[in-house]
Design a protein that fits this description.
Layout (H helix, E strand, L loop, with lengths): L2 H18 L3 H8 L3 H16 L11 H9 E6 L3 E6 L4 H16 L5
Antiparallel strand pairs: 1-2
Length: about 110
């Protein structure tokens, strides 16, 4: 099977699950699909569709200026904010990013 055929096959499976109204786990059980492969492909296709990047915009309003000089403030789609001090712990940020990645596969937040 070529790479394009595999991508097309998983794209179809992901669409079937989405339109089925079933959870990913239930869909996998019913169709004999390995759940870890299903979630891997669902995330991969989602990232490919989005280009794998988030748009970042600078907010230099006076209310944000104080935070900006203290470190880094990241807003994602108005639902998530991450504020880091200049001496932030990289390991903590890495753990937070992993949690957010897991939440993209699960209903962690609206």
């Amino acid at each position: 099977m070529t790479r394009e055929e595999r991508i097309s096959q998983w794209h179809e499976i992901i669409e079937q699950q989405a339109s089925s109204g079933m959870s990913g786990a239930a869909f996998c059980r019913e169709h004999g699909i390995n759940p870890s492969r299903f979630y891997h492909w669902r995330l991969r296709l989602k990232e490919d569709a989005a280009g794998g990047f988030l748009e970042l915009k600078a907010d230099v309003s006076p209310s944000k200026l104080r935070s900006a000089t203290a470190g880094i403030l990241i807003h994602v789609s108005g639902t998530i904010s991450i504020e880091l001090a200049q001496d932030f712990d990289a390991a903590s940020l890495q753990r937070a990013v992993h949690v957010l990645q897991d939440c993209s596969r699960l209903p962690c937040f609206p």
